[in-house]
Amino acid sequence: MTIIVSHPHREKTDWWIKQLQALLPNWTIRPIDDPGDADAVTYAVVWKPATGAFLPFPNLKAIVSLGAGIDHVLADVELPRRVPIIRTVGTDLTQRMREYVALHVLRHHRDMPTITANQRERHWQQLVVPPATGRTVGIMGLGNLGGSAALTLAALGFETLGWSRTKREIEGVTTYAGDAGFDGFISNCEILVCLLPLTEATAGILDAELFARLPRGASVINAGRGQHLVEADLVAALDDGQLSHATLDVFHVEPLPSEHPFWSHPRITVTPHIASLIDAPTGSRIVAANIERFEQTGHVDDLADATRGY
Question: Which listed residue (87, 96, 98, 225) is catalytic?
């Protein structure tokens, strides 16, 4: 029984092999470019696999995504659609996203970008903002990560709204669903957080039309995928004051090129895709446990739905 591992950075491929081999001593674990007997390969653990990467392995039982999203797997036009995809989600990743969302919502709420700029100018200005109970925050995407983040914001006292494809019920959060609920949701969001999965329906959703429907001076946090954002529309909305600030953790091209205008825009905060970065010990334990459970039962809680894209 062989597990193959693929990551764009070879040192990370080697690291995952080492960690997983220690946790799964009865398995053979190899890099995807040196798989040994292709017929013996039953699981693939991957991040951003190359097109056609899975075609040589006719006995694959499942593909394991090294993250909560599966868009990087579905991007393979030669993907064998019969093979289930397992997401890597756990309490550690959820906690990290809760922390990231709370941190940056509070930064926008307390207008820390202005305070930081004032410090550089040695300018003393006591800004008065409402308490959290007087601020409305909306989260797009109410899956594991979004639902948990919404609960965190509600616990902090924010008027918290949530929007998803289908209706969800979350204590302390006013939820909306589908196209019919979008207007009521978006028009009230003073701070908007995008945690949507990337699908054909959500690509480019953060565009000029959406920004125009937000209250003037709203701020945006994107920790979903870079392809959710129309970059030129964001810059235009920031420059004309429709948006006050944006925090971006994900980008169309990663790493973000050094010449990209986002780096120097005064109203954009760039973070290098760290919102819910999988950590070494926890990630390997989650992956190993999911493979063992799927091998035994043919099911895991984090099985993705490829037709929906998440």
Answer: 225
